[in-house]
Amino acid sequence: MQQSIPEIYVIIEWIVGILLLTAVAVGILYCVRRILRGRRHGGMDEMEGHDFEYFCADLLEKRGFMEVEVTRGSGDFGVDILAEKDGVTYAVQCKRYQGPVGVDAVLQTYAGRDYYDCMVGAVMTNQYFTAPAVQAAKKLRILLWDRGYIDGMMDES
Fold this sequence. Notes:
Layout: H1 5-40, H2 49-62, E1 66-70, E2 81-85, E3 88-95, H3 103-115, E4 120-125, H4 131-140, E5 142-145, H5 147-156
Parallel strand pairs: 3-4, 4-5
Antiparallel strand pairs: 1-2, 2-3
Helix pairs in contact: 3-4
């Protein structure tokens, strides 16, 4: 039994329709995932720099840090947050960037840690770090808290 040409066109249109609906569904799921991901991150990618500092300070407080203080905007010597946990003092620099955080942030935190007489220096970012930044942080003993680390902190809070 042979199908006629019009029946084949109907089948092809049906298949194309299913493919289009599938593509639209995938697009909607992608958009919803991006929206939910943005909410999960507290909208940190859209925050201004100073708002991100307060976001990080709140997150540290929720994680048991005490005496959390956001430093003044200018003249902070590369440190945005001073905090203490379990008798250990921290100098934290916050970087809300669009791309990877470089070695300059590590060097500024290193200097700021010493300026504020803190035991530990850390750079906190909504992104990730360049290889030179990671290498410098190991050498200078600066903690790197990237997007994945912040996600973990948020999940535990």
